[in-house]
Fold this protein.
Amino acid sequence: MADGIYVTMNGAAARSEQLDAIADNLANAQTPGFKAARPAFEAFFPASGAEDKAYPAAVATGFDLRPGPTTRTDAPLDVLPEDGAFLAVAAPGGGVAYTRDGRLSVDSERRLATATGRLVLDRSGAPIRVPPGPPPQVGQDGVIRSGDTAIAELARVKLDGPVDRIGPSLLAPAPGGRALPSDAKVRTGEVELGNSGALEGMVQLISAQRHFDASMQALQTYRSLDQRSAETGRVR
């Protein structure tokens, strides 16, 4: 009976991780630039080599990089890179991160920043400073202009391979992943929302919850059988 208990415990733990990921996706369905998490499952045979049972586990979490729905804002500094490209921004603690959250503004030090305060980087990896003068405008080519003067060009990249999440809408290449420079066009006056819809998330949540409940019921059944076996073996 113990083997059954361990198998169902592993199944319940895997489903619990899936529920956490789905709940996070649902909570961020309207978060600009958010990319949904997709847990991956795998079954393992025990170290003894026995093939009559397998232990399930959530072994990794991937991220869905497909574009989400867009909303029109008409704000001149709201930008949306096309072709699934990402903007380069300064990462927390240093380094570079990548985001699809293109709600940009000029901060108190006249630097271009996202709505969450991350500094936007140009092609050379430097923060973009906006000089006093006409309000900055972003062209389809990603070039930022103040009047007729070109200030800088937004760095755009395509993420290739595995990525890690380092913030609600921030990603960075994981080991084996790359950030490749891109010349993707840029649309202005639009913002991309999270790519995990509420309806899709609710369906996934209900399915995962049912599987979790089934694992817990099986666990209780195995525990009950184990207790009865122990009682049967007692000398009265």
Notes: The chain has two domains: 2-65+197-232, 70-192. Residues 142 and 154 are 5 Å apart (CA to CA). The two ends are 22 Å apart (CA to CA).
